[in-house]
Amino acid sequence: MQDQVVPTQKFGYIDVKQPAKVKARKLKSWRRRYAVLTLLNDLSRGGKPLAKLDLFESEEKWKRDSSNRVTFILENVTSIRGAHSRTHPFALEIVQRHPVLVLSGTTETNSYTWMLALQKMLVPSQVPRYEDSIQVRVLPDEDALRCGLSGEHTMYVTPQHIELVNASGVSTITWSLSTLKKFDQENDSVFTITCGQ
């Protein structure tokens, strides 16, 4: 098995808030912020995973005045997982003993990339088990809707099966390669899989 490359930094816009149970909350409601996630220490260096998440009002403010920010130190993280939100369908939460921060990208893929970066830095045991993946969008045809599939997913292909995982890191469907009847590439961007017994 190859060693995983652990990112040392990730940055971009993301929506963020703190759960109601957090005492002395700085972010009581959803706010769009420019986030800079930085790995401070990792297990390969003999320490506990430790990272910081700096939040700025905009990318411009980060470039001009990096002192005007809200900083969260992420240590003793036990889980990075999908979260329920009425207004942010792609929400994920950072959990220590309890959820301490909730993040959401504007798309499943955006949220998934943040989740994956956080998992690689802080809880590597939660990183999906396959390195090679393809970002796909499931087209909402009759068969996809019948299977409850729609939107953006990550597709993993192994010698045994094909698996689709949503932005929350949940496996939505797995096909054994022995059940796949046909692969068809309709054009440069549409790939069709036909399966059955």
UniProtKB/TrEMBL annotation:
GO terms for biological process: cell surface receptor protein tyrosine kinase signaling pathway. InterPro entries: Docking_Protein_DOK, PH-like_dom_sf, PH_domain. GO terms for cellular component: cytoplasm. Coiled coil: none annotated. Signal peptide: none annotated. Residues 7-123 form the PH domain. This is Dentin sialophosphoproteinlike [Aplysia californica].
